[in-house]
Amino acid sequence: MLTIRPFQASENDYQVMATVYGALAPDAPYTANEWQVRDELHNPQLILYRVIGEFDRVAVGYAEYMQPMWCADPSYIELSVYVHPAYQGRGLGTALWQHLQQAWQQYHPRYVLVKVREDWQTGFAFAIRHGFREQRRVWTSRLDVTDFDPTPFQGALARVAEQRIEIHSFAALATADSDFWHKLYELECQTTTDVPLAFPIAIPPYEQWIKLYQPEHGAVWEGSFAAIADGQVVGLSTLETIDNETDVEVGFTAVRRDYRGRGIALALKLHTIAYAKAMGVTGIRTDNDSTNQAMWHINQRLGFLRGPVWVVLRRQEQEEVR
């Protein structure tokens, strides 16, 4: 018998998420702990609704919708519907979708976003059938740190140094400057709006934002670097840990608009790679967007290889108010 029940923030239900998602994406799984950390980082003032789907009391799927933390417009929500491959084709995906549709009516969303892996043919067809249309494509790329040769890039580091731009780790800067985190937040306020996303962007309040940089949430202060010019933070590139992996991932790379085109982003990435190599990390993963070719070209130059592609789709629920 098919049943849908509320999600419980328990070890068991987070493990359900890990098991289902891991079966769908075995090359890029998330642990139960990583799903829990993601929930802890979600702004509690924003919508997050999740249910578990069961067959004969066995949890084999889950679905959720949320208001993205970086979204400036509350009329956008993100949707996810995941069913274990062994239980697909039995109506659970449709039941979860219909349940979410009923649940979100109270919020009157204008747009619903969904992200489907390109090779998930069943999920992609389901989204198209229910009125979703493609907006952009994103993918995770990976650099094999063990084979990386920094020699061809020494000129890139010298170029930045000649401009009197210094690059230091977050750990060193936080120790030397008590106001460092506020300076970093100011930079992200200036650069986040340039990040390619499927919705209007706004940075979270400082109290919520700073949680992203806590070590217990995966932040690596020693491996995250900022570019400093005249006492100001003008660029950053961050690293985060991945549970049960010898890889790390890039959280955010950005450069202030008036400092772009000077090679700062490349130099910052070279520092993160050098740190990873020194620490015995096997690889670095980063997300790329089809609408941000400049960053993708930097990553390709460094040797990052493209992984599975995700398609971001959007469905319009209501007409725009003009």
Automatic annotation (TrEMBL):
The answer to whether UniProt assigns keyword Hydrolase to this entry is no
Q: Keywords, A to Z?
A: Acyltransferase, Transferase
Q: Which CDD domains match?
A: NAT_SF
Residue ranges constituting the N-acetyltransferase domain according to the UniProt record: 2-152, 171-322
Q: Which GO terms describe its molecular function?
A: acyltransferase activity, transferring groups other than amino-acyl groups
| PROSITE patterns on file | GNAT
Q: Please, which domain of life does this record's source organism belong to?
A: Bacteria
UniProt keyword annotation of Transferase present:
yes
Identification of the protein by name: GCN5-related N-acetyltransferase
Task: Output the lineage of the source organism.
Answer: Bacteria, Bacillati, Chloroflexota, Chloroflexia, Chloroflexales
